[in-house]
Amino acid sequence: MTPAAVKIELPGIEKFKSGKVREVYDLGDQYLFVASDRISAFDCIMPNGIPDKGRVLNMISKFWFDRTGDVVKNHMISTDVADFPAELQEHAELLRGRSMLVKKAELLPVECIVRGYLIGSGWKEYQKSGTIGGMPLRAGYEMAGKLDEPIFTPSTKADEGHDENISIDQMKEIVGEELGQKLIDVSMNLYKTAADYALTKGIIIADTKFEFGMIGDELILIDEVLTPDSSRFWPADTYKPGSSPFSFDKQFVRDYLETLDWDKTPPAPALPEEILMKSREKYLEAYKLLTGTELEC
């Protein structure tokens, strides 16, 4: 039987906000994050989702939160439904594997992007001006080339519309000099720690974005972390600079949509089952490579 995407509904539980992928519920002194199977492409949410995608994202985040706790503390409390408040137990089957109980933190209004390879908007900027995030790079890089050193390029955190790239100086104006420098140092450390580990498992983390919050005076890593949705994961065994590598994410979806006569504005077209299942396989493969275990679906 073909698995189906799950619709997230928790009657009686107060919803704090709904994102492109995650539903966030307010439990008083804690939040409940629930990762749906929704998928977006070209800033449009597709009408049908990728089965088990939410479980993959949630459990990869758990994996990295566990591994990086010595770099920076994070907001994760538990992904075990048995640890959740009593009012959530009737929803245990829906929540299992795709939900995380987290500490409440004050969100910092910047995204911390670390790039280890030259691809996407960074490659376009480099081609145009020889810079990335406004910072000059040496000549001679190819598309998808590995940077001599990873680069930190922040952006604003937009509730609606597109995030906007900003300079490090602009970021420090927003959050303060000392905290801004800490965000850089922690983000670079997280990226290097994760990228080195992932490479031993056959995955290149080309770039990623981190989000942080404050609990009192303490910096906390929040949201999702180092997933195929927040990062570019490339298979190391087929990587070749000079062309755009295949990704462990929604590339099947993007490639399919590019073949359609669709103007990339809502409403988005429904995705064929074949595309959904191929994408599901790549998400599950990324989880297995990173963790060494099969995801319980």
From TrEMBL:
Residues 16-266 form the SAICAR synthetase/ADE2 N-terminal domain. Its EC number is 6.3.2.6. Keywords: ATP-binding, Ligase, Nucleotide-binding, Purine biosynthesis. InterPro entries: SAICAR_synt/ADE2_N, SAICAR_synth, SAICAR_synthetase_CS. One of its GO terms (biological process) is 'de novo' IMP biosynthetic process. SUPFAM superfamilies: SAICAR synthase-like (SSF56104). It catalyses: 5-amino-1-(5-phospho-D-ribosyl)imidazole-4-carboxylate + L-aspartate + ATP = (2S)-2-[5-amino-1-(5-phospho-beta-D-ribosyl)imidazole-4-carboxamido]succinate + ADP + phosphate + 2 H(+). The keyword Transmembrane helix does not apply. This is Phosphoribosylaminoimidazole-succinocarboxamide synthase.
